[in-house]
Specification:
The chain is α+β, with helices and mostly antiparallel strands. InterPro entries: PADRE_dom.
């Protein structure tokens, strides 16, 4: 399809146990379906089959902030979880409710797709927020 480029960061040895170990890229579609990709796929390749959507990494989703768009020729990283979201929410700050819905979508499909519940809890962690 197209050329992809990627930059490799040197992992911090103290945090190396926190790095993803999976060799596949997991994308959660709008309806909750999980699709796995082998490494070396670019965001453009997924987005070309999903008009009206954008990709965001679960690692960049926080309460009160807009989801970061992973786009263009950016190569998706193995072991990470990505969500396809509607373009209509691209400039909308995520709420606790939004993140909970995404976590439910991801965990609903865990057993069928070898998506670890612990991985979903890690990437959609609410540890920094108090719910009153």
């Amino acid at each position: 399809m197209g050329g992809c480029s990627s930059s490799q960061k040197n992992p911090d040895p103290e945090n190396s146990s926190k790095l993803p170990t999976s060799k596949v890229i997991k994308v959660i579609h709008l309806g909750g379906r999980v699709k796995e990709f082998d490494p070396a796929i670019c965001a453009d390749q997924i987005l070309s089959c999903n008009p009206g959507c954008f990709l965001c990494s679960s690692d960049s989703m926080f309460i009160g902030s807009c989801p970061e768009n992973v786009g263009g020729p950016e190569e998706l990283q193995p072991g990470y979880l990505y969500f396809l979201l509607s373009n209509s929410v691209a400039n909308k700050a995520l709420s606790l409710h939004d993140l909970c819905e995404l976590a439910i979508k991801a965990t609903t499909n865990c057993n069928d797709n070898n998506l670890s519940v612990n991985h979903v809890k890690h990437v959609l962690s609410f540890r920094d927020y108090a719910v009153v």
